[in-house]
Design goal:
420 residues; Aminopeptidase; Alpha-Beta Plaits; 8-stranded mixed β-sheet; 4-stranded antiparallel β-sheet; 16 strands; disordered C terminus
Amino acid sequence: MTDAPVTAVLDGLATVRGWQEDFYRDLHAHPELPHAERRTAGQVAGRMRDAGYEVHEQVGGTGVVGILRNGEGPVVLLRADMDALPVREDTGLPYASTQVTDDGTPTMHACGHDVHVTCLLGAATLLSDAPEQWSGTVVALFQPAEEAADGARGMVADGLVELVGSVDVAMAQHVLPFPAGTLGTRPGPALSAADSMRVTVHGRGAHGSTPQAAVDPVVLAAMIVVRLQSIVAREVAPTDTAVLTVGSIQAGTKSNVIPDRAVLQLNVRTYDEQTRTKVLEAIERIVRAECTASGSPADPEFELFDRYPLTRNDPEVTGRVAAAFADFFGHRARELPAQSASEDFSDIPAALGAPYTYWFFGGTDPDAYRAAEEAGRITDDIPVNHSATFAPVLQPTLDTGTQALVVAAMAWLQHSPSAD
């Protein structure tokens, strides 16, 4: 049974819902790329001030932090990410994005960060409107540049720890393509660590008609791609999980010119540091060996970028949130498997020394999902995050995400420090 204070805080949801839906449509229509979330940040800061929060802007560039102190008690940090992606929207929505940057890059909230921002604004407002129902401090953190993998670190580097002080628990959420109105938690590894790597291999250029005069980096790159596929299949234990993707190969400019170099871009996903290290070391070993086998005239070059930490949910915190979700949402709350996507959220609680949890909630029309499931066509018919057709339904997505943040926060805030 849901605690009375939680119910009392959520009694205001009907009032909040009206402006939330309008705010969401506007935000979806005006996406901004990482480190450029100025319009979004301004609107967030205005809403937070109206709700009575102490607002700090330009934290880590465009980040916004709202702090609401309401007596003695735990400090709970709730985080939402604000940035969009360089994707041309193809949803057909009346509020679809038509935004392009100054250099012509299309932009879209193709990952659902507009949902996250809107839900956190709603939850922060509901908590502010019912101060008699809880005690403690709420930190509402709106983070830039999650898609660039450096937004959380940027806020930390810009003094976030000194700004918010000691935090008892940190929490965040993400909308995913499963039925709206449902949500799920997971203790332990919930999202993978991610590492992108740029590998440059060197050859010797020549005319296409005289391959004997060349060291062909295209052939070299092809051999590397084939051999890399053996890492997960033959070097990672079957009980462990890893993904290695070669997402890009660039070499040459003309059909009859053998180029002098090739550039490969790789992406690695893992769920523990031992496997992460093993895979990255294996990539370098294989690339160097293939370069030697091909007679490459120069050593290969390796550049790691867009590195995301492992999201490992604290079991105790996650258990407490899962119990609160079960009380409030009933059968709509469940435990989910680990997801292969990645996040930089955990850089924030790591810097604060706070335990954390990160959960997922659905954004797909339940009827559409059910029909696709019955037809065995979920992969074909349900748009996923980062696609041009990803479009969470407004309701019950916004309600669920807002309720989840309130319910999770109140699992701490309605208790005194001594009760904890």
